Every structure is written in C-alpha cells, then in structure tokens.
Amino acid sequence: MREAAFVKQNKDKWLTFESVLSNNMVISPDALSSLYIEITDHLSYAKTFYPNSNTETYLNGLASTAHQKIYKTKKESKNRLISFFTYEFPLMFKQHHRELLVAFLVFTLFVVIGAFSAANEGDFVRSFLGDGYVNMTIDNIEKGDPMGVYKEQGEFNMFLGITLNNIKVALMAFAYGIMLGIGSLFIMMQNGIMLGGFQYFFYEQGLLWESARTIWIHGTIEISVIIIAGCSGLVLGNGMLFPGTYTRLESFIRGVKNGLKILVSTIPFFIIAGFLEGFVTRHTAMPDWLAILIISGSLALILFYYVYYPIKINKQERIKAQLDAKK
C-alpha cells in the first residue's frame, strides 16, 4: 500500500486517539485499549514499509505519548530532573537523529572548508581568530609553550567564562532556528570554519598532534554539544516547514518544545567541557595516554547518550508497548 493511501485510510483513527490523549477525553477502557493496539500495529507497519518517513515519526511520537499517559506510575517521580535526562529526553531525541546527522555533516563540511581556506589564503586564520590571538599563539610557540593560552586565566574564571560563552552559542544556535533552520546552519558554518582554520594553523606550525591532543581534551564534548545545539535549531525550523499531520501552529509548538528539550540536555555537557578546559586542559605536559583516555571517554559519553541510548530506550519502549497491548 502506498504511504499516502495508508495515511488516508487511518488518519481519522489517529486524530481521534490524539484528541483523546491531548484533551484527556473520557472513553471506555476497551475503546482506549483497542485504539492503542491499532496505533502500535500501524507503527510497526510504518517502520517496515515507510522507514524514516513522516508517518513513522508521527506514529512513534503518538505511541510514546500514549504509553507514558497510560502506563506511567500514579505518582510522578519526585526527582523530575533525573526522569527528564534518563527517560523523557532520550525517548524523544531518537525522533531527531536525522536533524543531528544534518547538523554534523554541515559542521564537518565547513571544517574542511575552513582548513582548505587557511591552506590557500595567508590571512584567512587572522581574519577569523584575530591578530591578537594569532600573535599571542606565535609568541607562545617561540617560548616553547604553544598551548600557553590555556594558562592565561585562573582555573575557576576560565571555567565560568568558557561555560557561559558556550551556552550562549548554543542558545543562538537554537534561537536562529526560527529562520527556518537556516540560522542554525549559519552557526554551524561559523564554528566549523573557525575550527578548520584553527587546526590548520597548528598543522602549518608543525604542531598538529600537540594541539589536537590538548584542545580535544575539552573540545570533544564542547564541539559535540554545539552540533547538538544546532540540531535543536533544525528541529525548531522543521516544525515550521514540515507540519505533517499537525496544523502548522501545532507543529511549530512541538518544534519549540522538542528543540528546547534538546537545548536543555546540553547544559550539563557544557559544564563538563568548561570544567575540562578550565582545570584539565592547562596541564599540557600530561602524558599522551592520559589525554587520549580523556578524549576517548568524552567521545564515548556523547555517542552513548545522544545516539546509542535513545535507540535502546525507544526499542525497549516499543517492545514493552506491544507486550502490554497484547495483554
């Protein structure tokens, strides 16, 4: 069956079920159970025949909302924050892995462009990083301490300043999503070009490895969550552009809410990145194995929480919903 025919055939049931959930309508338990079973069956069908489609995304969100309302405990957990980070956010974020991939690919593209531009235009790095920073770094290199910039400030002041600045960048990446997502892509472009030019500058000085093993101690988490913040802006923009079966206003509101949830999820990681930059990165004489361990652990943490865990928890919820529906 074509996707359009499948949607047309079942749309009324989906809208009825959505209305029941959103308006807390009172219907018989048998009718509610019957609708829920149909929704999970339709979701399985959509995953098989229309993978990664708007229909699958819509039904997955509807089934997840239904499961939370029908099977949640009577008393909500006292610690709402823990529930958000361990269940609510990852359950929702799986729906937005496509936007995450787009943000990552755009960022990576502009890293390459930044490195290429730095290699072919002599003043490119200075135009992006500023004469003051470049001259200070060259001076540090001549003194034999190329990463000395990370020792300029006190630990706590650096931690606080970097953390607040990164959160500001993330807020911009989200807010600029109001420009149909283009603004968020612009933030990805800016930061990608800056990173590419920055790394090429050290490569040109013969310090690629030393710079990478130092910078990526904090940069692994910092850059990753900037990309994730860009994803939040794309979610906002997509809510405006692609309403699917929702009205445009409803879709926009969902985009704002989901984008904000993604943005909130990045705050603890920005704090971790700020702590690493303020208190750890400055120890440039640490052995390579320790730097590699920190970088690898940071990457594993990001991939686990934003990629693996959302997939895992969604799979668990689908299995649980199907088993509950058959009872």
What does this structure look like?
By secondary structure, the chain is mainly α. It folds into 2 domains: 3-72, no CATH class; 95-313, no CATH class. The chain contains 12 helices and no strands. It has helices at 3-23, 29-49, 54-71, 80-93, 97-120, 124-129, 131-142, 155-175, 182-204, 208-241, 248-280, 288-326. The radius of gyration is 23 Å and the shape is elongated. The model has no long low-confidence stretch (mean pLDDT 87).
Q: Can you tell me the residue ranges where pLDDT is under 50 for at least 5 consecutive residues? A: none
How many runs of DSSP E, i.e. beta strands? 0
Radius of gyration, CA atoms, in whole angstroms: 23 Å
pLDDT averaged over residues: 87
Secondary structure category? mainly alpha
The helical percent reads over 70%
- Tell me the number of structural domains: 2
What does the secondary structure layout of this molecule look like, with pairings?
Elements: H1 3-23, H2 29-49, H3 54-71, H4 80-93, H5 97-120, H6 124-129, H7 131-142, H8 155-175, H9 182-204, H10 208-241, H11 248-280, H12 288-326
Helix pairs in contact: 1-2, 1-3, 2-3, 2-12, 4-11, 4-12, 5-9, 5-10, 8-9, 8-10, 8-11, 9-10, 10-11, 10-12
List keywords for this structure.
327 residues, single chain, 0% strand, mainly alpha
